[in-house]
Amino acid sequence: MLGLFAAYGENPALRDPKNALWSKRAPDVYRVRIDSSEGRFVLEVNRALAPRGADRFYHLVETGFYDDSRFFRVIAGRFAQFGIPGDPAIAGIWRNQSFPGDPVRVSNIRGTFAYAMTGPDARTTQIYINTSDQRQQDAQGFAPLGKVVEGMDVVDKLYSGYGERSGSGMRAGRQGKLFEEGNAYLDHEFPLLGKLIRARIIRP
Rounded to the nearest 10 degrees, how much is the dihedral formed by the CA atoms of 67, 14, 145, 157? Predict the structure, then answer.
């Protein structure tokens, strides 16, 4: 399916959050291969851990949502965050497309990943990967949906020198330029950020 859309054009669901695609169930277990400027790593999603989150993530990857974006918030020894498209037109469509939360079924330990959010039922498209154990996130409702199964060393290498200056978190309210100007802004102001080249569904 991804090859078909690559050959014939953009998946129409990417610009239509009400498209029927977004209500479809994801596989029980699937993997996402991410090619980055630092190398390749693989995420494995277990739908039983966070069904709503797994469904949303599957279709975001399927439509190419994350392709050509940036790891805009990397805090050394804590996490690496991505999930704002490089194209402001797409970013604007999805900026406030929140969906209900999932119960926390596993802890936020090194290698797990979950949606960033401002509070209950406020997840959208942003994902963070824990680069250390962050069990304090559990009580705040951050529900991991899977873990890195290959290439954790690549995640560790993502550039962290800008800290919170290159986007900060959703709660801080300082992501405006990332949504409004996209890669053009980040590449000019923060050129060393790691690049997410493409994300693809692969077989477990």
Answer: 10
What is the spatial distance between Cα 41 and Cα 179, in angstroms, rounded to a whole number?
Answer: 25
The reply to whether 14 falls in a domain is no
Q: Is 150 helix (H, G, I), strand (E, B) or coil?
A: strand
Q: Does 179 fall in a domain?
A: yes
Q: What is the pLDDT of residues 6-61, one digit of tens each?
A: 434 689 999 999 999 999 999 999 999 999 999 999 999 999 999 999 999 999 99
Q: What is the three-class DSSP state of 79?
A: strand
C-beta separation of 46 from 58 below 8 A: no
Residue 152 lies in a domain: yes
Cβ contacts of 136-140, under 8 Å, gap ≥ 24: 136/108, 137/108, 138/104, 138/107, 138/108
Domain region containing 127? 33-202
In a domain, 183, yes or no: yes
CA distances from 109 to 44, 53, 77 (A): 15, 18, 12
Distance CA 49, CA 91 (A): 27
What CATH number is associated with residue 173?
2.40.100.10
Cβ(39)–Cβ(86) under 8 Å? no
